[in-house]
């Protein structure tokens, strides 16, 4: 512990700067947008809707992004991966923010559901549901009680299973080098917990959580691709966040065993999952375009518009594809780019921003209709969450060793090359 | 097609842990390594031999965009100019419907193109023969062939390889290129020297 990493002053300045900017934006929102006024329909006043929609978009996005890094740890553990051990403490640090963002997200979701925000979730309106055969059929799933319980269970499970994975990793720092038998047992224990996490992740992030939190905004519409799409979106952003922190720590002279070989592999994740995201985006789009059912195409008409009249999200919709598909595909394709610290940082920022835009166009058309805004308020709330992530990650990085030096696979990571 | 007859000092190693420092030392001593033949791919050997990065992936990219343009231009020509059909009321220029096919042709062009390029670069083809420095290079020996010029002192190279840990050392005069035909003992493509 003698060589504990200390945060540079600029990091602290950025953390608090972003948090203060975010809190100011939040206060501005509370004062200007009357968020606790009842939801209005058709009055043309979307300011309170805007407040909740922006909070929903940002909280769910950033929570799933930090949660993705624990998924990365768990799947690499289950695959007996060795290369990532040199940088493993970084995704661990990022996933340690899950409880903080989880509680905030839970509070926001509860405020939306129990505050009767029918402008966000139309299925909250009992009189509408009673008259509507489709919503009535979904009411076993889309009701406030189930929403509350399952959201709580999801966040709680990510929290405790993630904490178990982190504590397994941290206890090796105290116990010293493991012999073969102890190491084998320890790896097995890791594998079991990682499997539990991954199974639960499949039940939550890769299926039910995005259905409840995001897809139910357009309650009539459904897509079986939706959760995978959300997962791909957040996983690629999560890997980009890991890359950014790895590069930051490497710049500060930490993570002695991380080389450009490890960066190359992280870059490959960013590249591959950008393509995977596009695959899901396209699969969802093409099936709906092809079958041309009015109840399904509604989702895309709200975003792109029709041949006669392009919608307000037209530009954003295609910007989403450019940022998250064309740029990563063409720029990250070359080997040299994935091995260059500067270009990976730039691409990571681009991808995180691109998927923030992706979430924006998932949430806004169903809630704000044609009145969406992208003003300092939207960016301010994003700044608040980024600031919280920086704060939480910084706390973990300064209180734990940055290299899991007693991990049985560390040697494999040290000699790793692609 | 003859690449010319050249003289080689051939050293065979039975351990890859010996081979790596040997490759490094031979290069440091300034000898020119013609090639190293191994029974299985060895990670990092290309780097140790100082081979340049392959540019086959650049070729792959070019094949891929050729596939993309072929698919898109062909389909748009067929469905808008040559034989427009009304399919489910969709526009003639139905881009989303073409994406899967465009993707498939991209992959097909790049995969097939890269395989053919690889075969061309490695001079691999049915009926094409190349000189084998040691038959056991396909079994259990790592075979290093060092190219000799007029000025090279064979004996010096041989003793160098001996010190580097080679198990078998000999001198071969061999055709460097490929030829079509058979391995014919009568052709005397290499001759054995020093009573080996």
Structure description:
The complex is a heterodimer of chains A (418) and B (196). Chain A has one domain (12-36, 46-414). In chain A, 73% of the residues lie in helices and 0% in strands. Chain A contains 16 helices and no strands. Chain A has helices spanning 9-33, 47-78, 89-95, 98-114, 126-131, 133-138, 144-175, 180-213, 226-251, 260-291, 294-304, 314-331, 335-338, 341-368, 376-399, 410-414. In chain A, helix 9 runs antiparallel to helix 10 and helix 9 packs antiparallel against helix 14 (341-368). Chain A is globular. Chain A starts with 8 loop residues before the first helix and ends with a helix. Chain B is of the alpha+beta class and 196 residues long. Chain B has two domains: 5-39 and 140-187, Alpha-Beta Plaits; 56-121, no CATH class. Chain B has helices at residues 16-28, 45-49, 56-82, 95-121, 154-164; strands spanning 5-13, 32-37, 128-130, 142-148, 168-175, 178-180. The longest helix of chain B is centred in the middle third of the chain and has 27 residues, at 56-82. The interface between A and B is small, with 9 and 11 residues.
The total of helices of chain B stands at: 5
Provide the spatial order of strands within the biggest beta sheet of chain B.
2-4-1-5
Shape of chain A, please?
A: globular
The major pleated sheet of chain A works out as: none
Number of domains of chain B: 2
> How much of the residues of chain B is beta strand, in percent?
15-25%
The beta-strand count of chain A equals: 0
Distance from first to last alpha carbon of chain A: 31 Å
Q: How many structural units, i.e. domains of chain A?
A: 1
Secondary-structure-based class of chain A equals: mainly alpha
Biggest beta sheet attributes of chain B: 4 strands, antiparallel
Q: Strand content of the residues of chain A, in percent?
A: under 5%
The low-confidence parts of chain A are: none
